[in-house]
User: Fold GST N-terminal domain-containing protein from Oryza glaberrima.
Amino acid sequence: MNSLAFPRGRCSPSPLTRPSTSRSSSVPSSRTIKIRPSSRSVARCNLRDAKNLSPSRTVAMAAAAAAPASSEKEVLPPSLTSSSEPPPLFDGTTRLYVAYHCPYAQRAWIARNYKGLQDKIKIVAIDLADRPAWYKEKVYPENKVPSLEHNNQVKGESLDLVKYIDTNFEGPALLPDDSEKQQFAEELLAYTDAFNKASYSSIVAKGDVSDEAVAALDKIEAALSKFNDGPFFLGQFSLVDIAYVPFIERFQIFFSGIKNYDITKGRPNLQKFIEEVNKIHAYTETKQDPQFLLEHTKKRLGIA
Assistant:
């Protein structure tokens, strides 16, 4: 098995995480994405495998997205290892457990930042290659990231955590009240695994970019044209953008560096999306060094 072929929706020390392989790789058309009511994306990173709106809400969302970036950069804690002591667990502090390179954890991290919760939700970074035993034993038996310690409970699954943070904490709304946008949001969230699978499979395969990956990228391009009140999936920045941007970030780097393929060529909506999302401080604070991501991934793929 390829060294990047991780179990479903889990992270390893590699910056590239393989998405689910249990879903069909077919790419629905831009207007006919089917929601699977019983399907849940296992959107988290597995430590075990590492070692081996109403108008007012819409205005609030737009204002938050347009707000100037803070000049202060958050000082992030070092990653905890097997020799690290645990924090004082369940002491009333809300903690978001992440791995800095994990795209699934990045989703919850962006949501926390966008809502301005840096002082209310503490980041705790886990070293996936040298994980502390207490994380599984005392915090999250699933032994994956991200997870959220809140109100003496621990919750997981990245997309669930994004929604949980949005509904249980103050700050700009991550979903508008508009019913059409809410419906499209659910369709796009249901499509994330298929998009990630098509893109990932093409990156690790030999040869040119696959037809499936091209179709998946074209689907994203079309989805970004549905609403004309902004450059994002629902017009204004939302939880849908949070779900996709960690993976678009990586796929742009990997397709360019490994396949010599520009994912934005002929896709002006995607290019605009990338340009505009990189103006959002809540996201850029979570980005990893592109060269590190590329070189680390090429090494794991055995590419000189």
User: Anything to note?
Assistant: The chain has eleven helices and six strands. The radius of gyration is 18 Å.
